[in-house]
Amino acid sequence: MLTREQCRAGRAMLDWSRGDLARESGLSERTITDFERGAREPHDNNKRAMSSAMEAAGLEFIPANGGGAGIRFRENPSADSTLVAP
Q1: Using CA atoms, how far apart are residues 37 and 35, in angstroms rounded to an integer?
Q2: Helix, strand, or coil here: 15?
Q3: Using an 8 Å Cβ cutoff, are 62 and 72 in contact?
Q4: For residue 46, which of 28, 35, 68, 86 sits 20 to 30 Å off, Cα-Cα?
Q5: Rounded mean pLDDT, 51-76
């Protein structure tokens, strides 16, 4: 499940404001602000909306499976197909 650190990092990676994420996820900017500040924990469906919006923009969330949770850009398989072998 999305952490507040992943939310902040994801927005930074996408160069999105809180307003951008609010628009893309269909949530209020206040919900995102409160979540990132740790003021309140949103419902799971709101966390899913935030992560889904960022995933649709090209991010991949990495679960904390023995290490820390993370986030990265999803590999773009179509970019690999443009490479020409020597």
Answers
A1: 5
A2: coil
A3: yes
A4: 68
A5: 89
10-47 pLDDT, tens digit per residue, is: 999 999 999 999 999 999 999 999 999 999 999 999 99
| Alpha-carbon gap, residue 27 to 22, rounded angstroms | 5
Residue 65, both tokens: 């499976």
3-class DSSP assignment, residue 39: coil
Pairing of strands 59-62, 70-73: antiparallel
Predicted TM-score (pTM) above 0.90: no
Q: What gap in Å lies between CA 53 and CA 51, rounded to an integer?
A: 5
Helix (H) / strand (E) containing 34: helix 29-37
CB atoms within 10 A of CB 19: 11
Look-up of token digits 């990265």: 72
